[in-house]
Amino acid sequence: MIVNLSKIKTEALLLFSKELIKSYIYKDEKIIVVDEYVTKIIEDRTYDIYKNIINTIHKDEVYTSGSNIHARLVMKYFDFLNKQITKELKMGEPFNPSVLLFSLLATWFLELGHESKSKEYIYFSLFTYGEIYDLMFVTTQDVAYKAMNIKMVDIAERIIYKYDNVRL
Fold this sequence. Notes:
Layout: H1 5-25, H2 36-56, H3 60-65, H4 69-88, H5 97-111, H6 122-126, H7 129-138, H8 143-165
Helix pairs in contact: 1-2, 1-4, 1-5, 4-8, 5-7, 5-8
């Protein structure tokens, strides 16, 4: 049996991203509000990504059943990502899940170029991550917020580079 690890890892990253978004997108309180304009754009782009993830990956039942080798491999890589993120983020320390999300995806799809020609993942390769980075770093005046965002990018890049090289 031939396994395309890049596709498996991409699917696991998208599944992880979906769960990360679900952990904060449907909450009433805002995690971080810099200004209403930035918050609205980030919420809209996050929801766009979420919808596209839902349309791209399998239903949750496929992963939780563990009935096939593909699903078990995806879950192994999902667990790897989850453990790496947990190690990097200190309990109680503020973090920006949106920047972490966008940075994980941008590093995987744009910097490393994974699945750039795959029709099921082309949306994630073409997404306007630069617009998000401009909002988070260039137009924002809050120095502490920028510092936290830089930390999120740094964490995401370290994890994705490690993820790219790991074989489970």
